[in-house]
Amino acid sequence: MEKQWWHNKVAYQIYPKSFYDHNGDGIGDIPGIIEKLDHLAYLGVDILWISPVYQSPLADQGYDISDYYAIDPRFGTMEDMDRLIAEAKKRQIYILMDLVINHCSDEHVWFQKAMADPEGEYGNFFYLADQKDGRPCNWRSYFGGSVWEPLPGTDKQYLHMFHKKQPDLNWEEPRVRQEIYKMINWWLEKGVAGFRLDAIINIKKALPMKDYPADRPDGLADPGVMLAHAEGIGAFLKEMKEETFQKYHAFTVGEVFNEKPEELAAFIGEDGYFSSMFDFRETAIGSSPKGWYDNRPVTGEGYKAACFESQERSADIGFYSNIIENHDEPRGVSRYLPKDQVCEASKKMLAGSYFMLRGIPFIYQGQEIGMENTDIPSIDQVDDISSRAEYEAALQAGLSEEKAMEAVRDYSRDNARTPMQWNGERHGGFTKGTPWIKAAPSYRLINVEEQRGRKDSVLEFYRSLIALRKDPKYEDSLIYGACIPYLREQKGLMAYLRKGEIHTLLVMGNYQGAPQKVELSGTYEKVLINNMDRFDEEEDGKICLMGWQYVILEMRS
User: Which end of the chain is more exposed for a tag (fewer CB within 10 A), N or C?
Assistant: First the structure.
């Protein structure tokens, strides 16, 4: 594999609205990010992905963009953005913008012009159809309901795969693509290092549009069915890369669901459309097409199997970007650990298990201190539009309001969007004002200030993982080495070898509360990482891992 500048980097995602509020209006902002850059430098972060700060009515928290060339005043100014890029560069941190180009806002000038004249130049920027002919297909929006909505003031309707205020852009129209490429290059010229590409698989629709078998009482079909029938997305992605990213040697990471197995090399191979793409195999564990209410809990064995399947799939192809949470998922420690076993030891075990897999590790804000799901008393206190849709789906399936809320509490995106917990003061130190969304009550115990400098904290453990991954001595194993599952059949154990040309490291996590004996793969030279203050060796070439213990051993060649 040809080495690239991003291969040995560690990335961090910021959800600006909830990261740090500089001016006290209750909304996180760009000056707040600048103020906290030293925290990221302390952690060891190299790449900073910032969720959307473009001008937006925030129908979907900024993923509905009304002007790609402007910063929303709630987040600051373009001068603030320039200063962020400059200040990050001083700390050797690269900035990634969130690229939302499957859809825009219905308040974008393109859509406004399409409404004013559907038969004119901008009508073809979107998917429009005559209302009198009925809806062209029975696809379900990701947020519930039909993807078709009347175009105000006309006899037309428009397609929206997400919220009705997020009309899909028609990528079949060359003028749309050229406008998008112009905008991408404008940001790259400004100094951003690359992009995270939102919902990018959706830019190619299965045409001509048609109905698919209904899978819920609403008579609609899951959008994933359409994506499985869509052909030809590669032509769009190849063109976009050549017109933009490739010219600037930019780092790109795709949010790609539903790609076909044979397409992985085209997406992230040596000459792939993207530098990397997120591995969502773990987030899909236990998910049900019926909705959140029908999801099954994650087990340690299920998590291990998903990780290893992804590693084996990508081994000879390219780098996945590995996560345990993001702005669209609940907190990882609340999802992948048993509810009665969430503690600092288990949080560290989970962190180390995913972090040392082959690929680029991404940390979501608050993950580095082990932030947990919040308490959501009722649907009235839910901000997330997808959670509201899932709540309604559960009620339609016959569940009680309380049962429907149980699913929302477990999976709501609000869990990841509560304010970053900086200290034990009011609102977790996020704002001097009233936060736009209520802080999780755990901020009094779980916060940056309490953990910084405490050697056995989750924060310091993440720092040790990052430092080891960035140690040039182990680059051959931890960056470019093979990831080989070890003792795969042993229950409650997630273990693998990171094998390079020079060094071999054995990574082991006891994925349970009870201790267990583990046979070593050979003789070890030294213990590189240990989330506990003890290491119990046996005389027969085995070690005893305590409950939730995690270790990395340098093995003798």
Answer: C
Residue pair 169/64 in contact by the 8 Å Cβ criterion = no
Q: Which amino acid is at 169?
A: L
Is pLDDT above 80 for 387? Answer: yes
pLDDT at 259: 80
The Cα–Cα gap between 14 and 180 comes to 24
Tell me whether residue 340 is one of the annotated catalytic residues: no
392-442 pLDDT, tens per residue?
999 999 999 999 999 999 999 999 999 999 999 999 999 999 999 999 999
The separation between the first and the last C-alpha atoms of the chain, rounded to the nearest angstrom, is 23
- Strand order across the 128-130 sheet: 128-130, 156-159, 148-150
Instruction: Decide: 508 and 480 in contact? Cβ < 8 Å.
Output: no
Q: In this structure, what token pair is assigned to residue 544? A: 């005893």
Q: What is the pLDDT of residues 359-383, one digit of tens each?
A: 999 999 999 999 999 999 999 999 9
198 is a catalytic site residue: yes
Predicted confidence (pLDDT) per residue in 167-193, tens digit:
999 999 999 999 999 999 999 999 999
Rounded Cα gap, residues 512 and 141, in angstroms: 38
Q: Which of 255, 279, 368, 384 is catalytic?
A: 255
**Considering only CA atoms, which of 71, 376, 99, 349 is closest in space to residue 240?**
99
Q: How far is C-alpha 35 from the geometric centre of its chain's CA atoms?
A: 24
According to the model, what pLDDT value does residue 235 have?
97
Q: Which of 8-12, 77-81, 263-267, 533-537 has the lowest mean pLDDT?
A: 533-537
62: left (phi over 0), alpha (psi -120 to 50) or beta: left
Q: At how many degrees (to 10) do helices 174-190 and 78-90 cross?
A: 50
Question: What's the token pair of residue 127?
Answer: 């998917």
Are 478 and 469 spatial neighbours (Cβ–Cβ below 8 Å)? yes
The whole-number average pLDDT for the span 221-249 is 97
Among 198, 384, 390, 414, the active-site one is 198
